[in-house]
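Our consortium's second objective concerns turning raw sequence data into structural hypotheses that experimental partners can test. To show how far this objective has progressed, the report includes one record in full. It was chosen at random from the queue rather than selected for favorable results. The single chain below, 446 residues long, was entered without modification.
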Amino acid sequence: MKQKILIALLLFTSLLNAQDAPKSYSFSLNQAVEHALINNYKSINASRDIESAKQRKLETTAAGLPQINAGLDYSKNFIFTQQGVTGNAFNPGGDPNSISTIAFGTKNSLNSRLTLSQLIFNGSYIVALQASKTYLQFYQNSKIKTDNEIREMVTNYYGNVLLAEESSAILEKNKTALQKTLFEAQETYKNGFIEEETMEQLQITLASITSSLSNATRLVDISKKILNITVGLDINDHLILTEKLDVLTVKNVDLNFENTDFDVTNTIDYQIAENFKEQRRLEYKLQKATYLPSLAANANFGYNAFSNDFSFTNQNQKWNNYSNLGVSLNVPVFSSFGKKAKNQQAKIAYQQAKTQLTEAEQMLKLQHSSAKSNYEYAIEQYATSKSNLKLAERIENKQQIKFKEGLSTSFEFTEAQRQLYAAQQNYLQSMIEVINKKTALDKITN
């Protein structure tokens, strides 16, 4: 029996550990973006904002639909309220100037009621219905803007991981080559063919490469964790990127981008600014609607009963039914210019929103022009750094041959190595710049 319990506990513990174990994923860039659009924390809350706005719209609509309320009122009189009567109405022979009191009512009363109310006309309600649609549209546009930002973040972080991995791989390759060169130099030094300074110079370079490699390795881990959070994974999940940096860069090189027309009204930022202007217009309209009369109707149905003893549960208890229909008309007449002041404030806010829309249009055009320029420069830098890398590789290779043959100094060889290492990093950085600048341009143009 004890063995069975022990086995059950072990199985249960294994199940818990399996549930807590990190999961493994394999994403291309598009797959990472699609996963983030569903699972990113900001995207999830943006979708909830839309659902909340839909409920807000339903709430506003319901305010103008029939409302039914039921109630039950019970009253217990311990001491009756006295009503004063002047004269001798209850005593003909009494003093006509005297004051007598009389109590009305019963010790117990119960009222059961049902009220049906309906708004017939209210200008503010009509405007509120229009505003609820604009309110919903605002959050729908915000969701689109959030999705665009998530696409940009995922692309940038995906590229950063690839950059860190490529940088780590190149540094590892450089370290291996440099270790081989240092070993050969040490053997040559033992035979007395080179000076100690030459060997020490190579050791300095190797130490620098080793330090950079260690930092790049840590950067890969941090970059992956950031990407995990962005796409909506657990920070400790294992994520494999199926894209290669050079392939992804080529995909983002678009030499025909200058022929693409830019319509600022199609951008989500412009639509949000236009939505803001529409909200201010409706607020102005709402203030003007307060000058209009409002009309509402209500119908009441109920039963009441009275008793000095609590006999409402008896079958012979008398119940009195009643019903009435009422119409309420409210006409604003004078508000000591308070409404006029609110109306002017709303008008000014609307005019400000129109100005902000014009400003947003101009800024978006400027941002698009700047993004195009940055993207064009990134493509040029990519081509230049690619060419420079080939030159640096040839120079370093020639200097290495000369160094081994004793035709060049260690300083010349080390300088060629540094030039190569810088060209490698510039090339990697130029590729990530192409990807990022293309993403920034796509974000503006949606």
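The partners drew two points from this record. The radius of gyration is 41 Å. The chain has two domains: 21-64+122-292+335-445, 68-120+296-331. Both points have been shared with the crystallography group to help prioritize constructs.
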